Structures are given as C-alpha cells and as structure tokens.
Amino acid sequence: MDHRLQKHIDSLVSRYPELSVCEMDIKKAYDILEDSYSHDGKLLIAGNGGSAADSEHIAGELMKRFKIPRPVPESFKEKLISVDPVRGELLSMNLERGLMAIPLVAHEALSTAYINDVDGLGVFAQQLYGFGRAGDVFLGISTSGNSKNVLSATVVARALGIKVIGLTGKNGGELANVSDVAIKVPATETFMIQEMHLPVYHCLCLMLEDRFFGE
C-alpha cells in the first residue's frame, strides 16, 4: 500500500494498539471502496441504534471535506457562474466534492411506509434494491453481526453484484460469514465495539479522502 495511505493505518494502530488485529481487513475494505469509487460507484450504509448514527456519521465524512479541502474543478466553477453570475460565484467558492455515500437509515418516510405496509426486516433491503447498482459497496454495521435487517440487505447486495463490507465485533456473527471482508474489532460488549468502530471508519474516510482529493 502507498505510504501516503499506510500512514493513516499506522496512526490508527499507534493510537489504538488493540486494533492492530484488524489492519489487514481494514486494508481489504479500503481496496474495495477505492475500486468502487474509481469506477463511479457509491457506498450504501446501514445499521441499528448507535450503528444507525454511525451510518450517518460516515456519510457526513465522505460527502464533504473531512480534513482537507475539496474544491470543485475549475470547469464546473465556470459552469456555475455562467448559469448565475452572483449565486454561481458564491457556490463556486463553497461547494465541495464528495464521495457518494447514502445512509439507508435516513429516509424516515420511505422506511416507515415500508415497515408499516410490507415488512420491518426488509427496510434496508428495499432501499438497497432501489438505490444500489452493480459495482457499489454495502457497509453493514452490526455489533453482534446478527442484525436481521442488515443481513437481509446483504442478500440483495450479493444478488445485485454489490460488494459487502461488515463492521462488527469480535465474534463476527453471520455478517462476517457473508461479507467480502469483515472488520471484527476485538471487543464483545456493545458499547466497547461501538467505541472501536468510530476510529476504524474514520481511518477509512481519511484514506479515501487522501486518495481522491489529496495532493
């Protein structure tokens, strides 16, 4: 791996030595994400409770700047200004390039309609079927690895040709078995697993930002 990207993993492990056991899986997950984004793919993310909050958090880090500036290309700035000289000028200075990430926990009207009308356990699967395309990536977050609605979404993902990354705890659960790569942080208590998930996905976001927007 390029030194520019490896430094983020090295920093992660230096701050959280217990996560050294996840290093190879973090690299594999990064490779899957990089390949997808390089081919105009996107990331779809789902989880429950605290993992739902993590899903939104990850999308927030990817869809705008995380640590480094992401100005829009000069060609797009010119188009903005040509459409509206005043608003376009302001937008050309403020818009930031993003890596498309959709948290499947964020669409309350759609989610509650599907839960009410059809099936509670298929709420992520339905959205994945609607939003997902071959070449995308599904990130399923489950501290136990056995969240039924997340596992249902993995079935749809695999049927569509979407790679699956699992982010879970030490035991991995069924999610680890059906994922292309599973990052199993070394903890078994839910809150401890969640505490370790955050630095892991921050590391992935830093690596992706550096790859696509760094010098």
Automatic annotation (TrEMBL):
Top-rank taxon: Bacteria
Naturally occurring in which organism (per UniProt): Succinivibrio dextrinosolvens DSM 3072
PROSITE patterns in the cross-refs: SIS
One BP term from GO: carbohydrate derivative metabolic process
Protein name as annotated: D-sedoheptulose 7-phosphate isomerase
MF-aspect GO terms: carbohydrate derivative binding; isomerase activity
Gene3D superfamilies with a match to the protein in the record: Glucose-6-phosphate isomerase like protein, domain 1 (3.40.50.10490)
SIS domain ranges (all copies): 33-214
Entry keyword set: Isomerase
One Pfam family here: SIS_2
Matches recorded under SUPFAM superfamilies: SIS domain (SSF53697)
InterPro entries the UniProt entry points to: GmhA/DiaA, SIS_dom, SIS_dom_sf, SIS_GmhA/DiaA_subfam
